[in-house]
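Example with several molecule types.
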Amino acid sequence: MIVVVATNYLIPEKKQEYMDVVKKLVEETRKEKGCISYVFNEDMDDPNKVAFIEKWESKEALDAHFKAPHFVELTPKLSECRTNREINFYKEII
Amino acid sequence: MIVVVATNYLIPEKKQEYMDVVKKLVEETRKEKGCISYVFNEDMDDPNKVAFIEKWESKEALDAHFKAPHFVELTPKLSECRTNREINFYKEII
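Resulting structure tokens for the full complex:
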């Protein structure tokens, strides 16, 4: 299993535009094979810091996600709404 | 619900000592009231970067966790084994 924590730092004025894209991305991604969980979160201390926390069955499932039509179509729109991002890939130990 | 992502950057030579403490902390924490999940993860690109990814039912449950005897006893030992840490509190949006 692979755990992904993808943090995005948003442009405040573009947050609504960003959220409209996120809704579609979450809806489509959750239908993907090997997607165990895919949750969009907001930092409790900073509404413009958000994080996707995801669980994937395998590297193959995650790689397929990055090539999925909705991912390829929607993620460029997300990048227009943020100043920065950080993505971490984890494996569960305990 | 509150989601916690607590990242620790380890002193390599102290990793085994750190892991011994983590095992006890995870075991005890999972017994706590309001602990939905409490998972210890390792960064796939850096074995000395680790992250607790946690889900708590409420702020009250998380506050009780920070006062729990095992937490108070064990976490100082973790801090001896790391160079840095970052803790983020999230709320689930979608």
